[in-house]
Specification:
single chain; 40 residues; alpha+beta; 2 strands
């Protein structure tokens, strides 16, 4: 899914800590990886 998002999107709206914001697919992937590395 992450690869499809990067290939097909310009901005992704998502929630982090109860707050929403827009990220590029690359920024979103970086946030996702950092979050899962810390919590995983």
């Amino acid at each position: 899914n992450l690869e499809a998002a990067v290939a097909n999107s310009t901005l992704i709206y998502h929630l982090t800590g109860g707050r929403g914001h827009l990220c590029s697919p690359r920024q979103y992937a970086g946030e996702f990886m950092r979050k899962n590395r810390v919590e995983g």
